[in-house]
Amino acid sequence: MYSKLKLEIIECIEEALVKMKIKLDDELVLEQPPSPDMGDISSNVAFLLARKLKKSPVEIAAEIKDNIQLPLYFKKVECQGPYLNFFIDYTLFTTKILNYIDKGYGELPEKDETILLEHTSANPNGPLHVGHLRNAILGDSLKRVLQHAGYKVESQYYVNDMGRQIAIIVWGMDKFHFKLDEDKKIDHAIGEVYYKSNKKLEENPDYNSQIDNILRKYEEGTDQKLIDSFESVVEHCLDGIKQTLKELNIKMSLYKWESTFLRNGSVDDVLEKLQPFTIKKDVLYLPLENYGIDKELILRRSNGTSLYATRDLAYHQYKTKNSDITLDILGADHKLAASQLSQALILSGNRAPEVVFYEFIDLPEGSMSTRRGVFISVDEFIEESINHAKDELISRDLGLTDKQIDEVSEKIGVGSIRFYINQISPEKSITFKWEEALSFERGCASIQYAHARACKLLNKSDYDEYEDVRCDYKLEAEEQELVRELARFTEVIRQSAKEYRVHHLTEYTLSLSKAFNKFYKSQQVIGSDHEKVRLKLVDASRITLKNSLKLLGIKAPEYM
Fold first, then answer.
1. Domain check: are 161 and 215 in the same one?
2. In Å, how far from its chain's centre is CA 165?
3. How many Å is the maximal CA-CA distance in the chain?
4. 55 with 182, same domain?
5. Per the domain annotation, does 310 fall within a domain?
6. Are residues 288 and 142 in the same domain?
7. Domain that holds residue 281
8. CATH of the domain at 63
9. Where are the beta strands (DSSP E) in 427-529?
10. How far apart are CA 4 and CA 92, in angstroms?
């Protein structure tokens, strides 16, 4: 709705300029004034015309104002020096927006484009750890936002079943008869075998030739027993990883195995397309210095086996054929590999992926002191967050039963992790701090609490969600602010989808919850002269908060 208001202002300014026989060469940009007293939407168009017309911006702004025909939902336009400031007619606009918002609010028209989004794709040699968190959460949140923005999105987990790590596990289980600990979660048990097998390799590096031999035989694909061993390890580990992802409210559309592209001839196909550009010496490689990339891309080892990069090329060729947009979520340490991959894809007649690079998560010293110096699994991290949330709920004495505390603390614990990670632009590193993530004043819990407040208020009333309302009074400042925030939701979805940046949505959701809480504390709802309109405003806030949290992969409690 807010973006529509902006478009209408742009149109009315352009029409005024046509009347004045003035052509604008620059794009009109609208802003929000620093204070509501100065209006709701502002234009600096007079600055853009000053040099061309050889007049002062103040004089130009006054002339444009005299030629403006205001759109429907505005009551006046004023000149503040060189700025044109537009004031919304909140009586009309509030009626419109409150009757417009429903459970599908924020959804954009369906687009005829399919996005294949790859994220997480951690090696299946143990549990997900904190280093994987940002990839998984960014990827899943982007999927949700892009779907809400009208795209068809398929999320894929690229399963590295041909990696050296899997060969080491298979080798350790066969040579040293390492068993999976049945008392542990399956991915943790596999991680333990990987650790023990690696220790054996460290003690005797000559064993590495046996690992090389296992990898070669697996790639040849003739030893069915070996294939079964690899697949068993990977499938078991994926079972544990899927369970962890479920705890984070993440569900992948498809798990695509790396070996698929070797077995079906895709690797040979992409290598054939690259043949005019490759050089064969001891190894087969693609020289890339002519494309501004310092390091060559090795495609086959001297023994003829492929590399991860080779199979990744085949996977991305598959992505080109099965989507309109390829989107990868990668750590900042993958920038060189991504540039090599992109250039190789272009040379082979395929499409280079669009990539969201992210920096990494650090934990402050002592934040999980029992595990200091040891990698922290996502399972442990979730458990720690839920325990923190439970302690906070108990200390606040909100009158919840033990069962309700367990339920809400899980929603807060997982939600706080997702929100804290999503709220920071991916280009910036994160130091995770529990006191900030779980804050009831400025963290995810404060948003969930606002939603619960709205639910509680509606449950106390005789509110009818299907009844349209008409606003016929002058709104208080807190109501106007809340209406403005509600109106911005669709615009924020559009921006987040266009830029592949979900932190715009977290900023908005926090801002919306603050506006709702100010309204909740300052204005009487039930029993007031404007009860029906204000209840509708509460429900519109509830819907928009719930939709915002859902797009961030966060559950919205109905009580707290």
1. yes
2. 29
3. 87
4. no
5. yes
6. yes
7. 114-361
8. 3.30.1360.70
9. 430-431
10. 15
Point out the domain boundary residue: 336, 361, 386. Answer: 361
| Cross-strand pairs, 79 | 84
Q: What is the pLDDT of residues 319-378, one digit of tens each?
A: 999 999 999 999 999 999 999 999 999 999 999 999 999 999 888 765 543 334 457 899
Q: Are both 68 and 138 inside the same structural domain?
A: no
- Tokens (6 digits) for 548: 């915002």
DSSP string of 253-312, one letter each residue: SEEEETHHHHHTSHHHHHHHHHGGG-EESSSEEE--GGGT-SS-EEEE-TTS-B-HHHHH
CA proximity to 385, closest of 421, 419, 409: 409
192 and 75 within one domain: no
Quote the tokens at residue 452: 């619960």
Nearest to 482 by CA among 101, 29, 79, 85: 101
Residue 125 lies in a domain: yes
Give the total number of structural domains in the chain: 2
Burial class (CB in 10 A: 0-12, 13-18, 19+), 402: exposed
| 299-to-224, 227, 492 alpha-carbon distances in Å | 26, 23, 43
Residue 207 DSSP symbol? G
CA distance 169 to 126: 10
Which CATH number goes with the domain that contains 208?
Answer: 3.40.50.620
- SS3 state of residue 325: strand
Dihedral sign from CA coordinates of 381, 383, 385, 387: negative
* Domain boundary residue, one of 343, 361, 379: 361
Question: Is residue 95 one of the residues assigned to a domain?
Answer: no
Spatial contact of 341 and 309, defined as CB atoms under 8 Å apart: yes
Can you say whether the dihedral through the CA atoms of 398, 402, 404, 405 is positive or negative? positive
Same-domain pairing of 76 and 161: no
Q: How far is CA 118 from the centre of its chain?
A: 12
| Average confidence score pLDDT of the chain | 94
187 shares a domain with 68: no
Please compute the mean of the pLDDT values over residues 399-407 and round it to a whole number.
94
- Identify the H or E element spanning 77: strand 74-80
Tell me which residue of 4, 3, 5 sits closest to 87, measured CA to CA: 5
Q: β-pairing, 41-43 with 30-31?
A: antiparallel
Would you say 337 and 130 are in contact if contact means Cβ atoms under 8 Å apart?
no
Q: How far apart are CA 363 and CA 434, in angstroms?
A: 10
- Using CA atoms in the order 442, 444, 450, 455, what is the torsion angle rounded to 10 degrees? -170
Question: Whose structure tokens read 């502002």?
Answer: 42
pLDDT tens, residue by residue, 481-516: 999 999 999 999 999 999 999 999 999 999 999 999
Tokens of 420: 């804290």
Q: Is the dihedral of CA 360, 545, 492, 498 positive or negative?
A: positive
Same domain for 143 and 286, yes or no, is yes
Please tell me the distance from the alpha carbon of residue 101 to that of residue 120, in angstroms, as a whole number.
34
Phi and psi of 392, rounded to 5°? -65, -45
Backbone angles phi, psi at 219, to 5 degrees: -70, -35
Tell whether 383 is covered by a domain.
Answer: no
The model's pTM: 0.92
